[in-house]
Amino acid sequence: MSSKKGTLSRVKTREKIDGWLFVMPFVISTLVFFAGPLVVAFILSFKEYSFLDQNTIWQAKWVGFDNYINAFKDPIFKRALLNTTLYSLGVVPIQLVIALILALIVDSDIKGKTFFRVAYYIPTVTSTVAVSVMFMFIFKTDGLLNKFLKLFGIPPYNWFGDVRLALPSIMGMAIWSSVGLYMIIFLAGLQDIPHSLYEAAWIDGANKWQQFWYVTLPLLRPTFFFNLVVSLIGTFQVFDQAYVVSGGNGGPLNSTMTVVLYLYRTGFRDFKMGYACAIAFILFAIIFILTLIQKKLFGEETQYQ
């Protein structure tokens, strides 16, 4: 009897060791490439450090909350935060509304819906840099858009060179290039709704609009919440489009300067890594708070109980 218990104990111990060996590569990579740099960045946000310094990170001057305080005194950071907020307010609602409309279209019984699903989704998997270059070609002064507007007697605009038009132009580019992703997610949510609910609503005399308002939208609430959170996070982290369009300087006159672009410039052009880390954690705090607010508004905590 004791030999059996000893054998079982050795087997369980061996299983535990094998289990740890299997997960060890993931644990080590997480600690080295995620948790470790995150802790170091958080410590750096309270220090004054540059790559050009001869001192190590641990020898860098401790400045406390000065980096965080200076960020909110920095006019360029405040402009970048304003631009990013306006960008999010402009892109997120339009993006989600268009995505929902497209999802409803490709979920209907139209002919060639597979083609439309692929066509709407292709911009999502296209390189952001390639999309930005394409839109720079379309939006330039003698580009395709101005040539089209000329047919209606509208004078040409320098879309990316005008302080008033540069940010809205990037918004339009972002909506076009990423709406397909949210369409696919909405489509998955629509296909998860039982058709029996629509049949019951039809028997009760509900028309198409009433079915959409009282059946589709309530049951899409978790999907809409997910898309809203992902879209908001994506817009607050916008970098590629602003960098390519402005050449990395956020111009003209900082009209396309975003928080992440300013973070990049501060850390890798001005070499103020401590200040850049502080900006990164300010952005994290903003996104985290907005996500909690959205979760509270949508009542997401009761959706899966």
TrEMBL record:
It is found in: Cell membrane. InterPro entries: ABC_transporter_permease, MetI-like, MetI-like_sf. It is a multi-pass membrane protein. Its main location: membrane. Keywords: Cell membrane, Membrane, Transmembrane, Transmembrane helix, Transport. Residues 81-294 form the ABC transmembrane type-1 domain. One of its GO terms (cellular component) is plasma membrane. Pfam families: BPD_transp_1. The chain crosses the membrane at residues 20-44, 86-106, 118-139, 165-190, 211-236, 275-293. One of its GO terms (biological process) is transmembrane transport. CDD domains: TM_PBP2. Belongs to the binding-protein-dependent transport system permease family. This is N-Acetyl-D-glucosamine ABC transport system, permease protein 1.
